[in-house]
Specification:
Elements (H helix, E strand, L loop, with lengths): L1 E6 L2 E6 L34 H27 L10 H27 L10 H27 L14
Length: 164
C-alpha cells in the first residue's frame, strides 16, 4: 500500500514496509537561508523610541517592587515600610503608577490599532506588557484576599493600621 506525501512541492510515494524510501528531490532546496524572525523582532535598542526605552526601564524596576509589595501585603497585612525618608514607600507608589501607566498605554494602543504595544528592542516591551497584566491580576487577588482577611486595604500613607 502506498502513502502519498508532499515535500517541498514534490510528491513521492513511500511503500509501507520499505526500509529506505526513495527521496529524489533533496537537492532542490533553496540555497538562501530562511528567516523566521520578523523584522519587528530584530529591532535594536538604538532604533527604539525614547518612550519605549523609558517604559522598559521603568517597568523593569517597577515589577519586582510591586511583587515585593504584594508579597509583603499578603504576609503582614501592610505594604512596604516607608523606609529612610519615605523613599521605599515612594518607590512602591511610583511602581504601582508605572505599571498602571503601561497597562493604560497597552489598552489605548489595543483600542486604537487593534494590536498591543510594539515588541520593542529584543521583545522586552512586549514581555513586560504581559508580565504587567500578570502583576495586575496578582494585585487584584491579593487586594481581594486582604479585604476578606483584614477588612481593609491599606492606604498609600502610613496610618494607625500600618506603620503609624
Amino acid at each position: 500500500m502506498a502513502i502519498a506525501t508532499m515535500f517541498a512541492g514534490k510528491s513521492s510515494f513511500i511503500h509501507r514496509g520499505s526500509i529506505a524510501p526513495q527521496i529524489s528531490h533533496l537537492g532542490k532546496f533553496p540555497s538562501r537561508a530562511l528567516h523566521f524572525a520578523s523584522p519587528r523582532a530584530e529591532k535594536s535598542l538604538s532604533s527604539s523610541s525614547t518612550g519605549e526605552i523609558a517604559a522598559i526601564a521603568g517597568t523593569s524596576v517597577a515589577i519586582p517592587v510591586v511583587a515585593w509589595s504584594l508579597f509583603t501585603l499578603k504576609t503582614t497585612g501592610c505594604g512596604l515600610p516607608p523606609g529612610p525618608g519615605g523613599s521605599l514607600g515612594a518607590l512602591e507608589g511610583v511602581s504601582y503608577l508605572a505599571i498602571g501607566a503601561l497597562i493604560a498605554w497597552s489598552i489605548y494602543t489595543k483600542a486604537k490599532t487593534g494590536s498591543g504595544l510594539p515588541s520593542g528592542p529584543y521583545g522586552l516591551l512586549g514581555a513586560l506588557e504581559g508580565v504587567s497584566y500578570l502583576v495586575l491580576l496578582g494585585a487584584l487577588v491579593v487586594f481581594g484576599l486582604q479585604f476578606i482577611d483584614h477588612g481593609y486595604i491599606p492606604g498609600p500613607l502610613p496610618n494607625e493600621q500600618c506603620y503609624g
